[in-house]
Amino acid sequence: MQFTTTLVTAALAATVSAAPQKTVSSNNQNGSIYRFGDAKQCHHILRDSGACGISTYFKKVNQEASFVAMPSDVFDKYGSAQNNKLCGKEITISHNGQTRKAIVADRNLSNDHSIDMCLDLWKAFGGKDNDGTVIHGMHFSINI
């Protein structure tokens, strides 16, 4: 009986671990600059003051990572504040042959419906310091 119980438990564990992840993505997303100047300071603001509360509720997330704010029309579909399923998740963003990774830390309420990012990411995708032009046609994906 012990052997059968062990096999059933192992089979259930394998089934649970094989559960498929959901991917949130878009092939036509806007990107915008959250704050010009020092990227490290910008990332710390998103980490410490963003809707997700990364520095308080997501201690296992690399606190020195790059952070972004997701457009509210995307963010709001997955919960509120630190209970949002996107919070603390790695996002992969691509545009014009460049790909970067960051962590979702905040909600962007702008009318641009854009992913807000700091200067290091902004420059990687062709943006310039002190140029707030919206970048169109970005691709992103997040496994939740």
TrEMBL record:
The keyword NAD does not apply. Residues 1-18 form the signal peptide. The keyword Signal applies. Keywords: Signal. It comes from the Eukaryota. InterPro entries: RlpA-like_sf. This is Ecp2 effector protein domain-containing protein. It comes from [Torrubiella] hemipterigena. The lineage of its organism: Eukaryota, Fungi, Dikarya, Ascomycota, Pezizomycotina.
